């Protein structure tokens, strides 16, 4: 079942990234489309560390929430309509997709619309938990996570540019910047995020 869970996490991350690309394309930036990233084929999206190793370690360690990432979908914010609001909408598309997947799967569980099979029910519960975790994690207002772009859109100009400079620093560090952010989250936010994940899980499934 651990392997099934890792596959589910990978697919959930891919849906997340493809959503970024589709919304960016809708808003006028075809960069992801030209890069061949508007596909559910996992190969163009998989990052060995973020898509396989990190989710696997999170599951094996009994983490209260699931971590992971794919190769970021390329987005050129200068092509997007509506300026910073277009960038915020593109960023929010990923977590929003995870939320919609969790809601749809939760309704199946809540209304008993699943085959009476322990394996199927367990897999659907993992889908719900994985997508809730990914949505909550990515909506944290910490650069370079999606939530930082959403929050930045609401900031006054001075704070907006300072906030984006902090984001630029994390991007300059490459994958190490994201790993550092995740280490800080695990050490300081693991308990509250796990609690929120559990509450949302119960609300969706009734379990």
What does this protein structure show overall?
There is one protein chain. With 207 residues, the protein is mainly alpha-helical. The chain has one domain (2-205). It contains 9 helices and no strands. The chain has helices at residues 2-26, 31-34, 48-60, 83-110, 118-138, 146-152, 157-172, 175-188, 190-205. α1 packs across α3 (48-60), α1 (2-26) packs across α5 (118-138) and α4 crosses α6. The longest helix is centred in the middle third of the chain and has 28 residues, at 83-110.
Mean of all residue-level pLDDT scores:
84
Uncertain parts: none
Number of strands: 0
Q: How big is the Rg? A: 17 Å
Give the structural class: mainly alpha
Instruction: Report on the biggest sheet.
Output: none
Work out the helix count.
Answer: 9
SSE pattern, N- to C-terminal? HHHHHHHHH
Multimeric state: single chain
Percentage of residues in helical conformation: 55-70%
Strand content: under 5%
Counted up, domains total: 1
Overall geometry comes to globular
Q: Give the termini distance in whole angstroms.
A: 20 Å
In short:
This protein has 207 residues and is mostly helical. It has nine helices and no strands. The chain has helices spanning 2-26, 31-34, 48-60, 83-110, 118-138, 146-152, 157-172, 175-188, 190-205.
SSE layout:
Blueprint: H1 2-26, H2 31-34, H3 48-60, H4 83-110, H5 118-138, H6 146-152, H7 157-172, H8 175-188, H9 190-205
Helix pairs in contact: 1-3, 1-4, 1-5, 4-5, 4-6, 5-9, 7-8
